[in-house]
Amino acid sequence: MNIMIVGVGGQGTLLASRILGRVATKSGYDVKISEVHGMSQRGGSVVTYVKYGEKIYSPIIGEGEADIILAFELLEAYRALPYLKKGGTMIVNTQRMDPMPVITGAAKYPDNIEEKLARSVDLITADALAAAAEAGNIRAANVVLIGLLAKSTEVEKDVWLDTIRRTVPPRFLEVNLKAFELGYGM
Amino acid sequence: MKRLMLGNEAVARGAYEAGVTVVSSYPGTPSTEITENIVKYDDIYVEWAPNEKVAAEVAAGASIAGARAMSCMKHVGLNVMADPVFTASYTGVNGGLVLCVADDQGMHSSQNEQDSRHYAQAAKIAMLEPSDSGECKEFTKKAYELSEEYDTPVFIRLSTRVSHSQSLVEEEEKCGYALRDYKKDPGKYVMTPANAVKRHAAVEERIKALTKFAETTDLNRIEDNGKKIGVIAAGITYMYAKEALGNEANFLKLGMIYPLPEKLIKDFAKKCDIVYVIEELDPIIENHCRAIGVSVKGKDAFTLLGEYTPAMIKKAVTGEEPEEPLRAEEPVPVRPPVMCAGCPHRGTYYVLKKLGLTVTGDIGCYTLGSAPPLECLDTTICMGASVGVSHGMAKARGEEFAKNTVAVIGDSTFIHSGITGLIDIVYNKGVSTVLILDNSITGMTGHQDNPTTGYTIRGEKTRQVNLITLCRGVGVDNVVVCDPFDVKELERVIKEETAKAEPSVIIVQRPCALLKSVKYTGHCEITDKCRKCKVCMKLGCPAITVKDGEMFIDVTQCNGCGLCVNVCPFGAIEKE
Ligand SMILES: Cc1ncc(C[n+]2csc(CCOP(=O)(O)OP(=O)(O)O)c2C)c(N)n1
Ligand code: SF4
Ligand code: SF4
Question: Would you say the CB of residue B259 lies under 6 angstroms from ligand 1?
Fold first, then answer.
């Protein structure tokens, strides 16, 4: 299983990939996660890969190889499109964040990304920010998306919940569990 | 039980299990988390050194004193460290000495893409290269054994994809390494020419012995799948090649990449009709194969640039083209990294841009001030270079040019190697103005303490380098401290200091917005007093954008730092 998590530096994609990686490990798979640290974390495009199965060699996912793409932002979902397997699923947070070339007017943010994606992929969209706000903190949007992703996998819900309990700092736990449930229930 | 670990975390675990007791490093992506993970082990002394050269010297000292020691750096850090390392090769070790160097193929976070394997050859130091986290731990332990057995420092070469990928690692007990005895031994540790002559001979003998070791060690292994195609690979490219070709090729996986074996390669090549050497960056293994008379395909089939992928390897070896992937219907705008909302550097660049100065830049978060809309920087070369480059420009073009030029350098970078440039300016009658962008942290590499922050890597309070007295102490009479968010005052100070025919230092001080101690609250809003002058857009704050023709602040991104309130000429931005 190849899952690609894309977003904007600072959105919490790393936590999502780590939770997913631990869940897969617990389920007995060989797992590799490739993360991004350093420069691109400063508001740039960030991509992490999570791969699990019998035996995993390369930690990276190439074009046409992702079974699922979990996108934290619309434009990043669109950018990641070539990586999705034909017939793969995209789970997309409908948040829009303008990159600097759009802010300065050097480039245009594409219109109707959702529609364009829906033409070629199996698309699931969600307003994770609103759900996170409902859970009590907009910073928990990443965990809402984890909830949504959890539903698309075969792993039992309890394994996810247990992993979140072990991964998230105690003072944020309540909000995050609520955020997960909201995502899972979408 | 196996646990998921970053490659870097696994190296740290390996150091712990090997009984390492002293680690000194300077941060640098992708190597930083090795040293940060060492902090977890209370029985290891660990420190951030001011730069890589000092870090290597501390580790060498610890090794000579009998401890197992480590120093970690990114590839360019090895340039800074090179001087002590080339001679530590001659002195050899007492306790094992391991130097971890992380290359950045693809330049995810670097200013160049140099191949650190050249250093192993040049300094005649053995180099191991793991392919995943499990090997990171194993090879680290093995490196200490080799270091002591062959009396040599040992390099561990990592890469972004090995350092920053997680895979499963089995944790083991710590071994019972005891501090070795220390005896004065000038013939080995005092490298006067007379002693060094003898030690050079020892180094050449050592490399011969290690080459022999390379023939038989299980670090290098052949996977004979009875196929006609052979692949020689190491590190992450071995994983890519395995994924691309599976059991459809024979593999010679090299775990030790310097020195390289001869007989092993020849024997492997004999079994195959065609041998590919698959290595990112320079043709080091390839050149070795050719030198020993083994004909291989290498850079004639693969690029010298950037990272490889399994698909690319498959195509080069089997000719198989991947299926045409899905494509977006239009160009997707890039999203380059930007300084965070609330970044203190933004105020400085706003003023520098307004003044239209020539700005010699340096390496850190503030390098992001080179991108639009700020577009301030004229040069960026390496850490510390802003100061010397600015002085050189002034000497080339004269005092008038100098009056319109400033150097910008971060606090960590200034301590790393900017202070020596400043001494040059003072000593050689320069007139340059240097802005130390003091955000109280080493930001770019993920927030490490440094000598100016007053805390150690373990978060203990320590003596803080006082930048004002430091600069005065080397002979700069004009040292001014200024807040970058007080843009009017900063503008005045920069004008005043650049006009002087003397060296000046302006310490532009405000902490990084991501520090826990920084408590901006709420967010800002654009009111109907806005006249669309777009001055706030010149800040390049990611939270300020245009929506349906109106200026708009995205509350999910704004942290209420208030800088935009200070620059709006109509008082149209208000804090909620
Ligand atoms: C020789 C060398 N070592 C390490 C690095 C990695 N590195 C890049 S920027 C930086 C430090 C930045 O800190 P600072 O100067 O305080 O600026 P800030 O990022 O906080 O704005 C480091 C260590 C490098 N590029 N070159
Ligand atoms: S991490 Fe700190 S110094 Fe770096 S861009 Fe963000 S706010 Fe600025
Ligand atoms: S919008 Fe204004 S207050 Fe908010 S982060 Fe940007 S500059 Fe600071």
Answer: no
CB contact under 8 A, B556 and A129: yes
B444 in contact with chain A, both atoms CB, cutoff 8 A: yes
Q: Identify all chain B residues contacting A112, using CB atoms and an 8 Å cutoff.
A: none
- What percent of chain A has a predicted confidence (pLDDT) above 90? 91
Q: Which of B243, B335, B537 has its CB closest to that of A45?
A: B335
List, in sequence order, the alpha helices (H) in B437-561: 467-473, 487-499
* Statement to judge: residues B174 and B268 lie in one domain: no
Rounded distance, CA B148 to CA B297, Å?
36
In the three-class reduction of DSSP (H, G, I as helix; E, B as strand; rest coil), residue B552 is classed as strand
Q: How many structural domains is chain B composed of?
A: 4
Q: Does residue B572's CB lie within 6 angstroms of at least one atom of ligand 1?
A: no
* Average pLDDT over every residue of B288-313: 98
d(C-alpha B24, C-alpha B445), whole Å? 16
> Are residues B182 and B47 part of one domain?
yes
User: Does residue B370 share a domain with residue B425?
Assistant: yes
Question: Which residue bears the tokens 């959702």?
Answer: A114
Whether B343 is in the pocket of ligand 2, judged by its Cβ within 6 Å, is yes
Widest CA span in chain B: 80
For the question of whether the overall pTM of this predicted structure is more than 0.90, the answer is yes
How do the pLDDT tens digits run along chain A, 186 residues long? 999 999 999 898 999 999 999 999 999 999 999 998 776 678 899 999 999 999 999 999 999 999 999 999 999 999 999 999 999 999 999 999 999 999 999 999 999 999 999 999 999 999 999 999 999 999 999 999 999 999 988 899 999 999 999 999 999 999 999 999 999 999
* Cβ contact, residue pair A78, B332, below 8 Å: yes
Are residues B55 and B175 both part of a single domain? yes
Type of residue numbered B192: T
Tell me: pLDDT of B576 over 90.
no
A100:B371 CB<8 A: yes
Q: Which of B45, B144, B155 is nearest to B94 (CA)?
A: B144
Which residues, 6 or more positions from A114, have their beta carbon under 8 angstroms from its beta carbon?
A: A74, A92, A94, A123, A125
Structural domain harbouring B289: 220-318
Ligand 1 in reach of B344 Cβ (< 6 A): no
Distance from CA of A108 to the nearest CA of B (A): 7
* Atom 13 in ligand 1: residue holding the nearest Cα: B442
Residues 6+ apart with CB under 8 A from A19: A146, A160, A163, A164, A167
pLDDT at B263: 98
Report percent pLDDT > 90 for chain B. Answer: 99
CATH architecture of the domain covering A2-184: 3-Layer(aba) Sandwich (3.40)
Based on the fold, state whether residues B181 and B89 are members of the same structural domain: yes
**Ligand 1 atom nearest to CA at B439:** 20
Ligand 3 contacts CB of residue B441 (under 6 A): no
Residues B542, B470: one domain?
Answer: no
Would you say residue B297 lies in a domain? yes
Chain B positions in Cβ-Cβ contact with residue A38 (cut-off 8 Å): 29-30, 108-109, 444-446
Beta bridge partners of B402: none
Closest partner residue to A40 among B108, B323, B540, by Cβ?
Answer: B108
